[in-house]
Amino acid sequence: MEEQDLLRFDKTVQQWLVDIRQTLEKNLLANLLISEKKGRRDLVTNVDKNVEKILTEKIHILDPKAQILGEEGFGDAVRTMRDHVWFIDPIDGTMNFIKQRDDFAIMLALYIEGQGTLAWIMDVDKGIIYHGGPKIGIFANQQKLKTPQNIRLEDGLIEVSGGRLLNQQLKLVEIGRKSLGIRIIGSAGMSFIKVIEGKAVGYVSKMQPWDFAAAKVLLESLKMPFTTIDGTEIDMLSSNTVLTATPCAHQEIVHLELT
Ligand code: IPD
Ligand code: CA
Ligand code: CA
Ligand code: CA
């Protein structure tokens, strides 16, 4: 895609997000309908579904030939990363959205021929959109972002997923012990934002493509490693144990010996 088209797509999607945020504030929150997916900790609301529906319809108009992979199933059964593939997580951190009304995000990403091209993560409560791509740079609203400082694991806070920690998975205890402290937000998007802003040294969690697709574009554009916890390449069409961190901490975590 030419730079002018990238900029047009970037601007258009930012406007969608601004509009959705406004609608959320005005209408949708009044009649929240909550249902269980796989259990009492895996919830979905009418807002998750509505936001995905709205975004899917808009993408079809903006980019008619694209395939769309959305968490709530309004998109396509995507089997290949050829051509244009969009990822949508309509509300990331649904539990936070329901219980706290903050620390949740809306995330979108566009991959072309498997290459992360554009992405958006909106911190809905604050109204900040982290967006951009490898060719146009990464921004928090209008402000251009730089690569975070390459600090060591022992000098930073590590973001993890609460569920994985409870299940004592992913060598999280060892990683936590080496770091300055563990942080759990309850939204992958919000944890990724901490890494993008250099407030956390890294984030590790097992997650689905819509949870990590946008962050992969943004963080790799900022020269941050984004791999599986073993340091291998991520499969964009299945669940992965994702590790992103400063280059220094990434190496330490990949090679961490369990004690
Ligand atoms: C979840 C959140 C949570 C993470 C889970 C995700 P959802 O996304 O990001 O922090 O630990 O793995 O599924 O379901 O709220 O979009
Ligand atoms: Ca969910
Ligand atoms: Ca979601
Ligand atoms: Ca999610």
What would your notes on this structure say?
The longest helix has 26 residues, at 3-28. The termini are far apart. The chain has 2 domains: 3-144, Fructose-1,6-Bisphosphatase, Chain A, domain 1 (2-Layer Sandwich); 153-254, 3-Layer(aba) Sandwich (D-Maltodextrin-Binding Protein, domain 2), CATH 3.40.190. A hairpin with a 3-residue loop joins strand 7 (128-133) and strand 8 (137-140). The chain is 35% helix and 29% strand. It has 8 helices and 14 strands. With 259 residues, it is an alpha+beta fold. Helix 1 runs antiparallel to helix 2 (46-62) and helix 6 runs parallel beside helix 7. One calcium ion binds at residues 48, 71, 89-92, 94. InterPro entries: Inositol_monoP_metal-BS (IPR020583), Inositol_monophosphatase-like (IPR000760).
- Beta strand count: 14
Order of helices and strands: HEEHEEHEEEEEEHHEHEHEEH
CATH architecture title of the largest domain: 2-Layer Sandwich
Give the overall pLDDT as a whole number: 95
The helix content is: 25-40%
Sequence stretches where pLDDT stays below 50 over 5 or more residues: none
Write the layout of secondary structure elements.
Blueprint: H1 3-28, E1 34-39, E2 42-45, H2 46-62, E3 67-70, E4 84-92, H3 94-99, E5 105-112, E6 115-123, E7 128-133, E8 137-140, E9 143-144, E10 157-160, H4 162-166, H5 172-178, E11 181-183, H6 188-196, E12 202-207, H7 209-221, E13 226-228, E14 240-245, H8 247-254
Parallel strand pairs: 3-4, 10-11, 10-12
Antiparallel strand pairs: 1-2, 4-5, 5-6, 6-7, 7-8, 8-9, 12-14, 13-14
The chain binds D-MYO-inositol-1-phosphate (IPD) and calcium ion (3 copies).
